[in-house]
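hey so i finally got around to running the thing on that chain from the lab meeting. sorry it took forever, my laptop kept dying and i had to restart like 3 times. anyway pasting the input first so we r on the same page abt which one it is
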Amino acid sequence: MEKKMSEKRVRVRIAPSPTGDPHVGTAYIGLFNYVFAKHNGGDFLLRIEDTDRTRFSETSEQQIFNMMKWLGLNYDEGPDIGGNSGPYRQSERFSIYKEYAEKLVEKGEAYYCFCTPERLQKLRERQIAMKQAPGYDGHCRNLSKEEVEAKLAAGEPYVIRLKMPYEGETIVRDGLRGDIVFENSKIDDQVLLKSDGFPTYHLANIVDDHLMGITHVIRAEEWIASTPKHIQLYKAFGWDEPKWYHMPLLRNADKTKISKRKNPVSMNYYMEEGYLKEGLLNFLALMGWSFGGDKEIFTIDEMIENFSFDKISLGGPVFDLVKLGWVNNQHMRLKDLDELTKLAIPYFVKAGYYKDEDLSEEEYGKLRRIVEISREGAHTLKELPEIASIYFEDKFELPVVEEGMNKKERKSVEKLRSSLETETGKKSVELFQEKLSKLNENISEEEAKQLLHELQEELGEGPAAVIMPLRAVITGKARGADLYTVIAIIGKERTLNRIKNILK
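ok and heres what got predicted. didnt touch it at all, straight out
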């Protein structure tokens, strides 16, 4: 178990950009930050990194808030709830970044760079032609104070760059990977403040993390290459750096970074498809972490209790939708039936099975039973109406053998159709109609079960010979829920009407 942090209160954050739909990677990193904070009795912050105003979307920002709240990853501080370390939008902190960039210039840790875009482009082209790594050549690094003042007075556009050390090494002490060494000579002088006065990600990120008291930075491994720049910024300011943990990236089956071309990456997709938050969080946890033993299904509270970075696997976790479906199915089975039914109602309305979500007591009771049965084979809430169609669709035709069917499917269809052609099949249907017509409309499952049992006794036949033809005329399917359950749910009249429809 992770040792509790006693010397300093744990404070972690996620800092998504509000551009496009909320990304499943944000939920993944958010989960581990949240769990680590709660395991250690610390704080979890949400910060919006919206310095790229050309791509900013107010809708995207709101969707980030909605996603986090839907998942139950409730942050302690953030733009929409406030806190003592705000503002929590970078666009509201621009004056802070300019002030800190200029402080570094005063300390001799950063400098004004007046190079034009044209010069930088030519420099890049020359370096590529000479097969050199592209990077800034330090042209303005040693301008005299007088030269700088003259250029500023003349109104020349500038950026502020960090003075990276030319020699030595920067060591990233990663909590998951150990020490990662970078040669300083291969890292150029990064831009901190752009010519339009906007900060770069590097400056804003480090200043915000320091001022917000972030103690541990838990983020995706794609940021490892930027970390030496961040460490040098901490040194330049004279601040203590946080502890670094770079989580393995979510990957496609071919081990490439997860992308919308090969997997749905929008969290809106998973919410609309009807994945439970418990199932999705459980699956995302399995992407980088092992509970221990062979336990794969667990709650977020269990994860918080048992969390340790020692259980993180650095192998590229494959985002497998089949595995996600299995995990979600397990949570659908475990979920309180009434809660699951209420979550499922909108999907049944959308499927056209109800006019609106305001169900009568009788309708709700039947739907509750339908959900109870259907959830055994459903991977999402959206699949429930598909599986439960036999309870709602009275007009159907018997399946026929079609080209492309495999041997098992073909045999199943042939068996279903032929069951109606046997003498036993015909008698079963006829006697069933006669007996059912004498019962009340609201037949119970027990009564329907008893009726089917009586049929078998009177005809002197086993279940297969009697039930199969009845299943054919009542559901049109060879397999499915127990026939007595279907009869009880749809009632006497609908059952008889279905039989008449098929026999015609």
